[in-house]
Amino acid sequence: MDIARYLDTIDRLCSRPFPAEHGWSDVGREGPGYWIAELAAGDGDAAHRSRTAEDLEAYREGLAQRLDQRWGAQPPWSTLTLRVRMERGEEIPEPWGSVGVMVDEVSLWRTDTSGRWVALGVATRGETEDARLLAIVTETDPP
Question: Domain-by-domain residue ranges, the chain?
Answer without folding.
Answer: 3-15+34-138
